[in-house]
Amino acid sequence: MQAALWVAKTGLAAQDAKMATISNNLANVNTTGFKRDRVAFEDLFYQVERQPGAQQDQQNQLPSGVQVGNGVRIVGTQKVFTEGGFENTGQDLDLAIVGRGFFQIELPSGETAYTRNGQFNRNSEGLMVNSDGLPLVPQIQIPENALAVSIGTDGTVTAQIAGDAQPQELGQITTVNFTNPAGLEAMGGNLFKQTAASGQPQEGVPGTEALGSLKQQTLEGSNVSVVEEMVNMIATQRAYEMNAKVVSSTDQMLKFINQSV
Amino acid sequence: MERFLYTAMGGALHTLTAQRIHANNLANAGTTGFRADLEQVAAYQVQGPGFASNVLAQEQDPTTDFTPGHLETTGRDLDVAIRGAGFLSVQAANGKEAYTRAGNLQVDADGQLLADGRPVLGVGGPIQVPDYQSITLGQDGTVSVVPVGGNATLQLGQLKLVNPAIQGLAKGEDGLFHLKAGGQAPQDPNVVLEPGHLEASNVNAVDEMVNTLSLSRTFEVQIRMMKTADELSAAGSRLVRGA
Fold first, then answer.
1. Closest alpha carbon to B227 in A254, A1, A256
2. Strands B161-162 and B87-91
3. In chain B, what residues touch A228 (CB-CB under 8 Å)?
């Protein structure tokens, strides 16, 4: 059957995938620490219908061959790790990383996941946990009689204990960095998993090496730009419609053959 | 047999190929740095004795439209677009040097600088990137990083930016451009990079759509001609039969 149909189909599939990404970005416009996705397209391989330099007849050679493209493919989605806006919340256990780096979160399986979402709470045992109740690594235990917790820019956690003049040191939060953060696998729940593409995590004290420093009582917003997504949505929708038009027009051609021959 | 039946058939076949080329352009309306293909047909006269009435349409290799696409701001450090003419050099799967306009660069876990999964070539070969705090691509293609620990800028090399004559370029099966004559294009200091931008596809969606519609009508005309050829030969048969 007609190749143009299949080529246009790849176009439809690609625009479809892009629309799904856009809607996910928009859905997460208010998700703390969310990083928007971007779809990358690449043209598919080209098919050689006739080699350049083939013999046309006894005397003549073809001046050029014919090679035609096969459409488009989705190379992948990339997380774009630009910083979101920071908002002050006034909560002691809200942290934002200003610069590069990720918090480490211990999964129920014992593996470590990584996140930019620094919205922490205390659980019943006094541990610092994320909104899903998963503990921060290294674990920070806040005593019951702590009046106020302060977290320094380098991740040092101290607490003012009732009846104590001296603040008590509770621990040190470390963050990690990756050579290629875009290669991390998004697991949902604001968490990322390390992959072969991201490289090994390099742990360190916030504010040193390449790691960003911590800001207490602050959260990093989503880095989705609503206007940009809207414009992308319009462009994607129109591109989709045009590819659909190619399908219908190719279909008309086939229909014409069927009816008139 | 009516010879023009074959002429019409050739025309219809060419229309199908052209339709496919335009479908491919439209499918790539959102592909970074894509360059549209334009179909080419040449009239070809069948040689031999008799009246020279047999002219067929012959497909030629599609040419490429090298008009630059518009630049989109992304703000990502590793996105580069080329302002005006020029290309980035990458290493194709066969190890040879090829050229592309798609500047959506990435650093993989081994610190290699890649464009769509292919190593990007610097003036002295592929570029290795150490662990960095921040990375900057300059307008002349200079890649520099502030390494982990900071306080200093480290120059890693310069991207090989080329600007060969476009008549000598052809699109390969992998969609990358290479020199028809083989070999490598020399580095051109006048090519300007725009860091933080990506170049959109240069496909004009409206053009492609109008072409698609017009091809679809052309196709119908060719089929109509075949039908006419059929009617002519049927009339001939009737005369011979004396019906």
1. A256
2. antiparallel
3. none
Give the β-pairing of A136-137 and A103-106: antiparallel
CB-based contacts of B163: which residues, under 8 Å, 6+ apart?
Answer: B85, B86, B87, B185, B188, B190, B191
Q: State how far the Cα of B19 lies from the Cα of A3, in Å rounded to an integer.
A: 9
B112 token code pair: 């290699």
Closest residue in A to B216 (Cα) is A253
In angstroms, the CA B2 to CA A11 distance is 40
Q: How confident is chain A (261 residues) per 10-residue block, as mean pLDDT?
A: 85 93 94 90 81 65 72 86 90 92 93 93 91 91 89 92 87 90 87 88 87 92 93 92 92 88 74
Using alpha carbons, select from A246, A254, A248 the residue that is nearest to residue B219: A254
Q: Are A208 and A153 in contact (CB under 8 A)?
A: no
Is residue A101 within 8 A of residue A215, CB to CB? The reply is: no
B75, two tokens? 């703000």
B80-92 mean pLDDT: 93
- Which of B25, B133, B213 has the CB atom closest to A100's CB atom? B133
Q: Which amino acid is at B91?
A: Q
b vs e for A38-48, b when ≥16 Cβ sit within 10 Å of the residue's Cβ?
bbbbbbbebee
Using CB atoms, pick whichever of A47, A70, A257 lies closest to residue B223. A257
Report field, pTM of the whole predicted structure over 0.90: no
CB of B17 closer than 8 Å to CB of B203: no
Alpha helices in chain B (DSSP H): 4-27, 205-241
CA of A195: how far to CAs of A6, A79, B90, in Å? 34, 14, 25
